Amino acid sequence: MTHLIELRQVYKIYAEGLESEVRALDGVSLTIDQGEFVAVVGQSGSGKSTMMNVLGCLDIPTRGDYLLDGTDVRDLTDRELSRIRNKQIGFIFQQYNLIQTLSVLENVELPLIYQGIDPIDRRDMAMEALERVGLAGRTKHKPTEMSGGQQQRVAIARAIATRPPIIMADEPTGALDSRTGLEVLDFLRRLNKEGSTVILITHDNGIAATARRIVRLSDGKIIEDHDQEVDWYT
Amino acid sequence: MNIAQAFKMAWKSIWGKKGRSALTILGIFIGIAAVMTIVSVMEGMKQKTMEQYAAMGSNRINVSIYSWMYDADGNDISRDYFPDLYDFCAGLKEYVEGVTPSGYCSATVVYGTKSSANMEYQWDEMGNLTGEVPPQIYSGSDQYSRCNNLTLAKGRDLALLDINDYNQVCVLGAEAAKTFFGSVNPVGQKMQFNGKDFTVAGVYTARLSEEDSRYSRLDNFIVVPYTTANRVLGAERATEFVVKARSDEAMTEATSRIAGFLKGLVNTNTGGYNVYSEDQWRQYANDSLNMIGGVLAGIAAISLLVGGIGIMNIMLVTVTERTREIGIRRAIGAQRGSIVAQFLIEAAMLCGIGGIIGIGFGTLGSVALSTLMFQTTVYPSALVTAGAFSLSVALGILFGSYPAAKASRLQPVEALRAE
Fold it and tell me: Do A116 and B5 touch (CB under 8 A)?
């Protein structure tokens, strides 16, 4: 059967052949199936962010194959990769990555604009996503006028507005206090229960412990990959 | 991404940095205003020149005949060909309305206390003419008025008898009549040309409006019989003649017939001739003015080039500043084309706004300059205005394309790393 995500001996090497060569990913093989909740854990510099960039089609591996839904992404054009990022993947970043000059609603609408959805449907979909994160009343605000937790909720709304099958979160709680961080995690779990595949990148073992599956990275290699029982899933 | 959305985004970005946008626009709008002013002032000048040609009447054929013959003692014994030309034209009634010498004559003209020798005039700093302009004295035949689009306002015209009898009479242009006589009726009055009495036979109607006439001097003249001018006032014999044809088609026919006639008449060993329709002159004047205008507009366009480079510079800065934003947009699915469109539209909009302001200033400039230079108000034509706007938008697209291409080539992962 085809896996949703399959990495085969993937390398990401910077300055290859030079003395300063860095192997951010050093022969990683991994499969992730539809509906999983995977935490990719590792110290800073372990290659977990590179992994997220590769998985999210933001970066192309130096060597090895990445099959997304059975398609090798190295065969895809920039246009097709953009479309995959737009429709298949919802990104949540540590630094929220909202566009400061746009309002909350406009930020959430942005991926829908790039899908070419007409303004009325677009607004409905964006409003629905904002309602789900509890920010329907603050659509006109600029990101700078909001707290970190609220900004991250806007980012989550933007990620889910297109209803992508995969959610990728890179240290989504890293810039938040622990209580707000827990709310964000809770939300990710809820999305997973509803059928989304969630990939959570974190350096925090405590957060990783709440995932059904943990993939541990060190020096660009997978050193641990196991499933665990978690109470929230039942 | 649809176009309306892209325009909205571009406007947001421009409005978000008002000060910078205004300074960027400055280069474009000064350039556009300069080019527009020059183009429309040249248009006005052309229009004015053509108006003067029109006032002189159409279907004119210019004939010049010159000869040089001297006897053993060095005396000029060249032949006067005009009587032959006059008779030939009289036989061409079907095509020709009239023929006259187009000669100049310098003489001091006096009436009462007014003397052309004492007349003074100047242009003040506003471009207004003050003082009195001495009239031009022309020597002509009895058909002078017909050849020069003149009609009588008072009295009588020059007659064949005046020519044959060397009568000391003259007919005044409207402006000259006003200068010398004011409200007095000039007909029958005596003026002194170099101290000799000349009777005013008549006055012509003005060919241009009063304002225009004053500045162009087209109506500030006096005509005397060419025979009298030669004998009494010592004027040189005319070598330039004007033939007035009855129509456009008649002009072509008359031109070739007169040329044929002169070929047989003028001895090419001792002289020569030239026949050309005034349309050729008109065309030549038009072409020259177009060329001058083109050169001036080209010089002004250099400022547009500088303005365009300013746009490119500021767009490059914008791309650098917004690298992270570009990364975010790419990450959530923006195509390269969307990024290109975003920055291109922003540059084109910036220049378009500059163009609109430039058109405003250019219109003011054309009106002010044309009023100052030739006392008419010239508004830029719709074509010039549309051209100026298209030019500014095209500049935006031209100079925005490099920064836009640079923005679209950023790798999403690199762009996201930018601070």
Answer: no
A200-230 confidence digits (pLDDT tens): 999 988 888 889 999 999 999 999 998 887 7
State which fold the A35-53+78-233 domain adopts: Rossmann fold (3.40.50)
Scanning every residue of chain A, which has its alpha carbon at the shortest distance from the alpha carbon of B322?
Answer: A99
What local confidence, expressed as pLDDT, does residue B203 receive? 95
Model confidence pLDDT, tens digit, residues B171-223: 999 989 998 998 899 999 999 999 999 999 999 998 877 666 556 678 899 99
Tokens 């943990």 belong to: A214
Distances from the Cα of B367 to the Cα of B47, B360, B378, angstroms:
15, 11, 5
Interface of B with A (CB under 8 A): 1-2, 5, 12-13, 16, 324-325, 327-336, 338, 411-413, 416
Residues 6+ apart with CB under 8 A from B313: none
CB contact under 8 A, B333 and A53: no
Say which residues have a Cβ less than 8 Å from residue B405's Cβ, sequence separation at least 6: B340
User: Residues with Cβ < 8 Å from A173, sequence gap 6 or more?
Assistant: A180, A181, A182, A184, A185, A202, A204, A207
Sign of the C-alpha dihedral computed for residues B66, B72, B74 and B79 taken in this order: negative
CB nearest to B332's CB, from A53, A101, A114 = A114
Of B2, B331, B338, the CB nearest to A85: B331
Nearest-by-Cβ selection for B1 from A59, A91, A113 = A113
pLDDT category, B344, cuts 50, 70, 90? Answer: very high
Residue A168 near residue A155, CB atoms below 8 Å = no
- Nearest CA of chain B to the CA of A205: how many Å? 25
pLDDT single digits (tens) A46-105:
999 899 999 999 998 999 999 999 899 989 999 999 999 999 999 999 889 999 888 999
**Tell me, what's the pLDDT at B270?**
80
The pair phi, psi for residue B33, each rounded to 5°, is -60, -40
